[in-house]
Write a structure and sequence with these properties.
The chain is α/β, with parallel strands linked by helices. Helix content is 31%, strand content 20%. The protein is globular. The model is unreliable at 1-27 (pLDDT under 50).
Length: 158
């Protein structure tokens, strides 16, 4: 990891599945082996020949390590991304706000990496099982501030 600027405190963000689940099976919590994921995605694919017209519009579909997709429209492409953030909380309001901002930035980065401009945002924030109600208001404030140029349009929390 690179050096941080003097006087800046590092905020720990754990992207979903960064650590082993402790089961000893070699699968990290929330993550699948890339080869297994590729096989599962291939088995679930629905080619246009199967009567799935939407599959024909898929310019860039799912793949291991790919957090964005591209949908072919008549005159452009629509790029969609889904990349969850884990809110470890309850560290403090500023940390929760940074997690909210990171949720937006990580997904916007996935969209930009495909050459598109982020316009909408679906939040996926994984919350700790013990609850983080005290950190939710700052987390949503961070989401709102980071969405200055994109419209929050839905999402999920677990």
């Amino acid at each position: 990891m690179g050096r941080r600027p003097p006087g800046r405190r590092m905020v720990a963000l754990r992207i979903a599945g960064d650590q082993s689940d402790g089961e000893g099976d070699g699968v990290r919590s929330g993550k699948l082996d890339p080869a297994l994921l590729e096989a599962l995605l291939a088995s679930a694919a629905s080619p246009p020949a199967d009567g799935n017209a939407a599959a024909g519009a898929l310019a860039l579909g799912p793949g291991a390590g790919r957090d964005a997709a591209a949908i072919r429209l008549p005159d452009r492409y629509l790029v969609l991304a889904a990349d969850p953030i884990t809110f470890a909380g309850p560290a403090g309001a500023s940390d929760a706000a940074r997690v909210g901002q990171a949720a937006v930035h990580v997904n916007a980065n996935d969209v930009v990496c495909l050459g598109a401009e982020p316009r909408w945002f679906l939040a996926t924030v994984l919350l700790p099982p013990d609850g983080a109600a005290a950190g939710l208001s700052p987390l949503f404030d961070g989401l709102r501030r980071a969405c200055a140029a994109a419209a929050p349009s839905g999402g999920s929390s677990t």
